[in-house]
Prior knowledge:
alpha+beta, 5-stranded antiparallel β-sheet, 3 helices, 5 strands
Amino acid sequence: KASTLWLTSEDKMVIADIMSHSFNLLRVRYWQNKDETVWVLNEIGKEKPITIAVHIKAHQVQQVKVLAFRESRGDEVRHSFFTDQFISAKLIENNNLDQHIDGITGATMSVRALTKVTRLALWLNKKAQG
């Protein structure tokens, strides 16, 4: 079922820290079924937005999927050999992931975008689920 998470100014400060830029949305929509949530978020790769879905269950990543990739380079992040690295990732202190994500030569900005969105989805999930 679709739900909406309304963001406070304090939330936006945390999100800005995670994303390394300001976040101007008032709310974020997500889908929830018991302890599972799915977040569909956009982040700029180098110049254009990448649409990413993050499926979370029991506060850890189940799947990361690139829904729309609009950049001319770095599309290797769409493939499971890259996105499977996020499976079972959780947030630790400072809102970082508890596991290392290997980069891809020539796709640095896209890798960063997926990593930031995954961190954000985990943080939003924690806030939404309490």
